[in-house]
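note to self — DONT lose this again. spent like an hour looking for the file last time. sequence + predicted structure for the chain T wanted, 245 res
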Amino acid sequence: MTENDQLLLNAYIDGELDPAHVLEFERRLAEDSALADERSRIEALRGAMRTRLPRAAASPELRRRVAALARPQPFAIARRGWGAMAASIALAFAIGSAATYLAIRPEQGEAELLVSSHMRALMASQPVEVASSDRHTVKPWFNGKLPQSPRVVDLAAQGFPLEGGRIDVIGLTPAPTLVYRARQHVISLTALPVALRARGPIQPIEGYNVVEWTDGPLAYWAVSDLAAPELENFAKAFRAGEAEP
């Protein structure tokens, strides 16, 4: 399945195709079993998220953060130029869609959204957008796509080989995610602004463990179905490892 097929499939499921393209795409679904299977996986994941993740009123903290993101900053736009203005337009579009944002329990914070992103990646044909075990390839891939790249550490010797990376959207925040493995287990390691760090202990969510720590301006969140002690060992190895300069 090509990247264009994936985009068309998501647009079809979201009801964003015009009638002519809907008919054409449904013909392809009838003829392409792999495409039809991918549609079933995506719809099953969305159904599981609707039924298993709680919905609640947006918390005051979430409202405050959305309002802060929406606040205009003309001087920053003037300094950064048209690229920043384009990003601001994209952000405004995201905020306009905030009515569809999945409200989460305050005590879990970003953890549930991170678990959801991890589950969504596992349902995809592969959990990465750039596939490489070379940190010299993965870190530069993030440059220019996000304001800040994460640390990238080679942990193959510790039993956690690097698989690649992807960009997730956690709430309204685009975030870099590194993907490591431990045997058959996938570890998603997402870097978020330190302001979104955990406010307390994080309990397992739907069978997934979450470990969080801070490093300068970033908070790192590791999500996996690894046993909690082994995920803690991964976090310790990452913190102690030598990062790509």
